[in-house]
Amino acid sequence: MTMPNSQLHSLDPVWDRIRSEARQAVIDEPVLGGFVHASVLHHDTIDAALAYRFAQKLASSEMNEQILREVAERAFGADATIVTAARADIVATFERDPACDRFLQPLMYFKGYQAIQASRVGHWLWGQGRKDLAYFVQMRVSEIYGVDIHPGARIGRGIMIDHAHSIVIGETAVVGDNVSMLHSVTLGGTGKEDDDRHPKIGDGVLIGAGAKVLGNITIGHCSRIAAGSVVLEDVPPKTTVAGVPARIVGEAGCAQPSIMMDQLVGIRAADD
User: Fold this and answer.
1) Cβ contacts of 41 within 8 Å, gap of 6 or more
2) Phi/psi of residue 177, nearest 5 degrees
3) Which of 155, 180, 210, 219 could form a disulfide with 175 if both were Cys (CB 3.0 to 4.6 A apart)?
4) 113-143 pLDDT, tens per residue?
5) How far apart are CA 208 and CA 240, in angstroms?
6) Residue 265: per-residue pLDDT
């Protein structure tokens, strides 16, 4: 028997924790009371809070808040996996980012998290054939957050983008589950091809700051890409690559690089 939405919402430990932390935040910093209430405490569900945040951040003189909020609410109502992924992204950020000590922070303050959630709405619009509105969302996400994710890109759950500035993800890119990446990562093409032209990132991959992964190549699950690398060829699972162009310098060093967040590539391995 399917559980009613009201019961599912009442059993939402992620949302319950966010609301508890929000109440404490108001006590600790009363001047933020209006902001915290409007963003969290005024809402009964995480779906509603996400729709509100989406609309607040992306609204402009060209598209008002009410329209954007309705768009997000329609997306969440039609595809429950969007909000399920949003919960997983919060937990992933809390577990992997040492600067995150509350579930509240990604929803309220972290542009990487917020950009991903907005892009999920854009991807839903893209799938519905509403490409112009999807492009509008992409444009506003890029303008507001400095993150440019094409609405055609497919992104898994449990994603953590630390700092998130200057992230670029192309139209035919695929990002698996439990992937971590840092700022200035590009998942791009290598030319003007019209077909499948962007990288496919496996589950559990860690992509270091400034790394460029180019072309229709596959990055095997649980691999590490060192900061500043330029990856032009397939990467086998559970390996570490580094350099320009990138080459294999050893094993990944742990079972789940994206969770361990160990970005140090051994000197001996890199010099071999």
Assistant:
1) 19, 22, 23, 26
2) -80, 150
3) 155
4) 999 999 999 999 999 999 999 999 999 999 9
5) 11
6) 63
pLDDT tens digits, one per residue of 185-216: 999 998 877 799 999 999 999 999 999 999 99
Q: How far is CA 230 from CA 25, 159, 271, in A?
A: 42, 21, 17
In the three-class reduction of DSSP (H, G, I as helix; E, B as strand; rest coil), residue 214 is classed as: strand
Dihedral of CA 223/215/146/55: which sign?
Answer: negative
The proportion of the chain whose per-residue pLDDT surpasses 70, expressed as a percent, equals 93
Q: Residue 207: which residues within 8 A CB-CB, separation 6 or more?
A: 179, 180, 181, 182, 185, 201, 213, 225
Residue closest to 189 by CA, chosen among 180, 200, 198: 198
- The structure tokens listed for 121 are 């709405």
User: What are the angstrom distances between the C-alpha of 81 and each of 67, 76, 152?
Assistant: 22, 8, 17
Q: Domain 153-271: which topology?
A: UDP N-Acetylglucosamine Acyltransferase; domain 1 (2.160.10)
Residue 6 has pLDDT above 50, yes or no: no
Tens-digit pLDDT profile for residues 43-82: 999 999 999 999 999 999 999 999 999 999 999 999 999 9
In the beta sheet, which residues pair with residue 186? 168, 212
Q: How far apart are CA 244 and CA 164, in angstroms?
A: 22
Domain 13-146: CATH architecture, name and number where available: Orthogonal Bundle (1.10)
Q: Which residue has the tokens 């309220």?
A: 108
Encoded tokens for 4: 């009613």
Give the burial class of 53: count Cβ atoms within 10 A of its Cβ; 0-12 exposed, 13-18 middle, 19 or more buried: buried
| Alpha carbons 151 and 264: distance in angstroms, whole number | 32
